[in-house]
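ESCALATION

Customer reports they have been waiting on this structure for their group meeting. Please prioritize. Original submission:
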Amino acid sequence: MKTLILLCLLITSASVAFAQQPDVEKKLKELGLQLPLNQKPIANYVKAVRSGNLVFLSGQGPASMDGKLLAGKVGKDMTVEQGYDAAKLTGLSLLSSLKDEIGDLNKVKRIVKVLGMVNCGENFTDHPKVINGFDGCCFWRKRKTCPFGCGHEFSSF
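Update from on-call: job pushed to the front of the queue and completed.
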């Protein structure tokens, strides 16, 4: 069975507060990035949960703008560059879920935690290079986060 998840980046909590920052949607357009339509969860979970001024997002994999999930293992079926691009797509998908929950991405003050899981071949070691693709769509966040990344050989979704 072909693997359906390449990468899962998770914003485990994003502090939502009003802050003076660049207009996020305008900056995304300047960078040539577009938020995809938020897809419905494929199982019995929600994409976002609020607790006070924190928002916790469910993990998501990379999907094209038409919602099709990308498949393959980095280092085996895909290059590091393709994995980086998949991480960027995953980040945009997460931002879309966050926007659906809070209404305006300009409310995000900080992304606190990022968890990246890379679907890769057994000898692959460049996980950070792949997960860094997420940074391209989280340009306004402070660099002081608690990132965590690892690689797995997923057998199925």
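Sent to customer with the following note: DSSP finds three helices and five strands in the chain.
Escalation resolved.
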